[in-house]
Amino acid sequence: GAGVSQSPSNKVTEKGKDVELRCDPISGHTALYWYRQSLGQGLEFLIYFQGNSAPDKSGLPSDRFSAERTGGSVSTLTIQRTQQEDSAVYLCASSLVGGASGSTDTQYFGPGTRLTVL
Amino acid sequence: AQKVTQAQTEISVVEKEDVTLDCVYETRDTTYYLFWYKQPPSGELVFLIRRNSFDEQNEISGRYSWNFQKSTSSFNFTITASQVVDSAVYFCALRGFTGNQFYFGTGTSLTVIP
Question: Are B73 and B25 within 8 A, CB to CB?
């Protein structure tokens, strides 16, 4: 079946511009995560959506970052007034159910969007 | 605190050697979940294994094996008879019982030299 897809795969933008990154989770997965991976670094948690519950935004680094998930499926991560330090790979993951005790919490990742801010 | 430490930043081995990737974790939860992911040069993270804290049985899957030691808070990953295709960055991750967040280590970059 189809995995997690993300678009665009690469995005080059100028400092100060806004960007939107898209994530299509695996069909039927209720939980969706966004991460940021800077060069040579681990994964930094950004935001988590679970069904219709309020998202966990505790990882968003500043108010320039926001995300929404429409209809419990597709998610868009928006970065306003981009800065050079925003350059990174942005990864999306989905799981059948988040916060679960069974294996339904296992995350499956998309290929990422490489963002370069000039 | 919830934290995962992968002290080995980079490892190089010659093909067919065995290699162990270390993972040490910290958590305040008595029930928690541990994961390993592989990130090949193509960039997409691939799920390898999930382990519950109450199941300390070691697991073997082909050339891969995992050693979970609760006493030392470690969840190490061994590749037997390494192959060039094993070259990748490997991440260990932790999820606590009560939270939604996954805590990832900084990864170990493995290079298998032919």
Answer: yes
